[in-house]
């Protein structure tokens, strides 16, 4: 699957191919929004939280592993001219990672915890190449309004929370639950645009604006 929104995208690094290691349509849309040409390969890794692992370490590990997994699967002839972008997001309340709901009861429990409360959304982004993998974590504070059980049940019936970490999608119906946000909105959706663009620029990739802030300017 190839995504191309700008014919001059990646022109500064024509020898390098960009691969997104994600099945998330939201991450595909966000990366395409920046104007990069890329392909998609889904990374199938174990996403179990390790004992004593913090949320920060967890999302960073998964983002790096997703990217490295696809990089390692590439034929040896393609590894030198390909770089893989991986990302992962988790919702955290009082140090506890809130995962995707198994059923309506899970959703009611999770959103009742988030109701009238502040939580954190941690999103990691990582880029793997033949030289190794680098990444970072972005933390955003989100405050929810008070939710009634009736609201939560009605939200569950929309189908939106069923595949979402923390049981909600800020870019959808659940946007009306958010009283305030301090940090990166795009990171809460699934891919931090600023940090991703900076990471790709350092690797030589060019997006829609066709410039690289890390390229030396000759006067």
Q: Any chance you could write out the topology, listing elements then pairs?
A:
Layout: E1 2-3, E2 17-20, H1 25-33, E3 38-40, H2 55-73, H3 76-79, E4 82-93, E5 96-98, H4 104-114, E6 118-129, E7 132-144, H5 149-157, E8 178-182, H6 185-189, H7 193-202
Parallel strand pairs: 2-3, 2-4
Antiparallel strand pairs: 1-3, 4-5, 4-6, 6-7, 7-8
Helix pairs in contact: 4-5
Description of the molecule:
The chain has one domain (2-202): Maf protein (Alpha-Beta Complex), CATH 3.90.950. Helices cover 31% and strands 25% of the residues. The chain has helices at residues 25-33, 55-73, 76-79, 104-114, 149-157, 185-189, 193-202, and strands spanning 2-3, 17-20, 38-40, 82-93, 96-98, 118-129, 132-144, 178-182. Strands 1, 2, 3, 4, 5, 6, 7 and 8 form an 8-stranded mixed beta sheet that branches. Helix 4 packs across helix 5 (149-157).
End-to-end Cα distance, whole Å, is 41 Å
- In terms of per-residue confidence, which ranges show pLDDT below 50 for 5 or more consecutive residues? 1-11
Taking all residues together, what is the mean pLDDT? 90
Most strands sheet: 8 strands, mixed
The overall number of domains is 1
Specify the overall morphology.
elongated
How many beta strands in the DSSP annotation?
Answer: 8
Helix content, binned percent: 25-40%
Give the name of the CATH architecture.
Alpha-Beta Complex
At the first level of CATH, what is the class? Alpha Beta
